[in-house]
Amino acid sequence: MLKRTAHAAIAAALATGAVASLAGPATAAATGAARGDSGPSVVRTDKGAVRGTVTDTVRTFEGIPYAAPPTGERRWAPTAPAKKWRGTKDADRPRSACPQAGLVAPAGPASDDEDCLFLNVTTPRVNPAKPRPVMVFLHGGDHTDGEGAMYGAQRLAAQGDMIVVTVNYRLGALGYLAHPDLEKGARRGESGNYGFLDQQAALRWVRHNASAFGGDPGNVTLAGESAGSYSTCAHMVAPSSAGLFDRVVSQSGPCAGTDGRTGREAALRQGEGTAADIGKQPGVQDWRKAPVKHLIHPFGQGPRYTPVYGGELLPRTPKEAFATGKFNKVPVLQGINRDEERAMVYGMELAKKQTTGDPNATIDATDYRTRLEDEFGKEKAAAIADRYPVSAYDDTPALALAAALTDAHFAGPAVDTGRALAAHSPTYSYEFAETKTPWYADPAYPKPGFPAGAGHVFELPYLFEMDDYEKLDPAQRGLSDAMIRIWTDFARTGKAPWKPTTPTEPNTQALASGPGGIHPVDFAKNHRYDFWKSLPSR
Hints:
Layout: H1 7-15, E1 29-30, E2 42-44, E3 49-51, E4 53-54, E5 58-65, E6 88-90, E7 118-124, E8 132-138, H2 154-160, E9 163-167, H3 172-176, H4 180-183, H5 194-209, E10 215-225, H6 227-237, E11 247-251, E12 262-263, H7 264-279, E13 308-309, H8 318-324, E14 332-337, H9 342-356, H10 365-376, H11 378-387, H12 397-422, E15 427-432, H13 474-493, E16 508-511, E17 519-521, H14 523-526, H15 529-534
Parallel strand pairs: 3-6, 8-9, 8-10, 10-11, 11-14, 12-13, 14-15, 15-16
Antiparallel strand pairs: 1-2, 2-3, 4-5, 5-7, 7-9, 16-17
Helix pairs in contact: 2-13, 9-12, 10-11, 10-12
């Protein structure tokens, strides 16, 4: 199944703190049953046949190579095509995740295997009467961790009558290291963007092979969460990604923010330091041939990696591109979770417990003010603390801090993103607002000393198979069904069941269960958008 332990991924996120149509002649063909019958377990791709698994509701094909292994001379090189194979390749289990330390040791997909460029396809069991829409989902993990197989897509595919493709791509230094030596001969700005190039290769694979699985290569939605969302932003502005997708779903990674990008000069400076550090490791004479263990860091530690802007590949940041209208214009569904930063503040709390040795340690008023000053400077911190007084948050400094950081880093950029996109493309905005989602973290991690609310990654179990889907109550399962309907209908039509965002009206819809359910909200007001815009830029 497309489902490794998802607890590890969510626990890690909480613990770190820190357009042209694709229609064209098919290049691959399915073998087997007629339309209306159960689909075949063997499908012939453009590189060879694969044998998947057939269940009562879906067919899954896991660990399909979409590119050549990025090993040896291909380390820090543009993605190369996969070789053809003879016979039928088993695709009944996930293959290696790309090198990473592991989200929560020893759990999580810890890997040192560079042969990792695989994808997974989930499609409804029954052959379609007409080609189905396709969703390509890019995983999160701060561009340093994660894998496609963590996101089981059985419900998304079966209930939504849609094909879902999840993707591995190079991570960390192996995927996003920029360095002057790597710039030589890299005229398009590939240095620092190898993981991004992998994603493009996966999208091209979908273009050539969607029809073999019953999909429509002319209706591809590119979706992603967190780092995956920031990757969708990069594809929207990359000239070479034009025509590879027809819609975008952006979850918890607003394009107008600054977290998901790095300028080339800054990336090159970081890369020189990283290479120097690698070269100091015992036995490492050539950092380009260094053992993988010297190139990966635990989640949330080491250099921060993102797509690198500047150059032919990514000539403009999303903010610049949206302002000028020079980007790949497609319909967009974009949004955030109401309490995004509670997950990161929990990481601060957990770190405090570990450093102090006090299992009861919590974020206090001093921690609150110190973090604001570190983040925004003393002058701004005073104004922010006045606007987010601890007394307004059940006298809980952690909640006040999380609210301020969420509004600064997620909500404000989400409003800016919606307004900028709406001037050019149909755009729909949402806020995941289910505040009583069960605690999904690994049992090794204690619950936070405050309500987790609608924190970062907490919407994922409503869309994908996660370990504790069984914990959802009936109303929450109803919300899950509704969200799957919204996501898949958007993939099919490019529309959501509420008014689109405009340059002046966010028209944001809250997604929640219980009384009120799915309903419109004044997103900008609730997240103090005007206050943040009133603060000096520096």
